[in-house]
Write a structure and sequence with these properties.
- The chain has 349 residues and is of the alpha+beta class.
- The chain has eleven helices and 17 strands.
- Strands 8-7-16-10-15-14-13-12-11 form a nine-stranded mixed β-sheet, with helices on both faces. Strands 1, 2, 3, 4, 5, 6, 9 and 17 form an eight-stranded mixed β-sheet that branches.
- Helix 6 crosses helix 9 and helix 7 crosses helix 8.
- The radius of gyration is 21 Å and the shape is globular.
Length: 349
Amino acid sequence: MRVFSCTPAEWNQLLLQFPDAHILQTWEWGESKIRNGWMPETFIWQKDAQKVEACALILRRELKFSFLKLRVLYSPKGPTLNWANDALRKRVLDDLQEYAKAQKAIFLKIDPDVLLGTGVPGTEGETTNQLGQNLEQTLKKRGWLFSQDQIQFRNTVLIDLTRGEEEILAAMKQKTRYNIRLAVRRGVKVRQATIEDLPMLYRIYAQTAIRDDFVIRGQDYYLALWQSFMQADMCKALIAEIESEPVAGLFIMHFNRVARYMYGMSTEKFRELMPNHLLQWEAISLSKQLGCDSYDMWGAPDVFDESDGMWGVYRFKEGFNGVTARHIGAWDFPAQPCLYKLYTRVLPR
């Protein structure tokens, strides 16, 4: 494991050598976190002078609580490697654990995008993935703990884009197809956003956060993030309008042949005209045009019933008839167990 000094383009090109490399491991994602006090570093594992076997974007943050100065580490949707390679997996985890200790970090968090299974647990369509189950067991034996702070969604809904548009549309639930067509008939128009539209989209996003009771960051953070990914040609934004008035929007973040619906926003006006259904359909169509094989609807419940806050959103996504994908989630290596307990249990209270 060594620090890899490179340009943004070189790092992203390196990631593209790995079929499962995630957009949250890109250079641009690391740079976006600097505003929130994180410092990104890039690391590689090499088999020889030419071949890179694994890589990781790791974020480092210093925290101060009274007389305590604490350090935490996080590799969002990383590290990136072939997790089925036992020897490589052992080498990477060994190095990460030693690195966390050498950094005197409270903990190191990882949440590799490794599948645990598909389908809703307990239903006929449920499947399990042995690799994900084995990785969970490996982490437990090494002293890693399933994190109580799941930064990213563990579960999501994936739509296969390798099919034709008519086939994708035909596979949707009848009500979803009806709502898409209703939006078209009622005059909903969808266009691509420009950088000049970003402040307006943030204002609608803030309205959405208040209405749906979730926390967002300040405008400067999102404008910088969205703009940097748009300039790197890894982000497209769509706006739904009715009589030229913006009523909803979304952002598609795309990398490594996967498009992800990571940010969505809407006003209270004209909801009965189903602009969000048409937006999703246009996002799916655009993602195919971008050469993506999969459309990630970004988020599904941890618990698949009405007790979960994501349940209503999930029911909307279900209408598009994607595959519910369940991942292993985030795991913490407590490099300093006593401080980890303080950080995760005492300080929140």
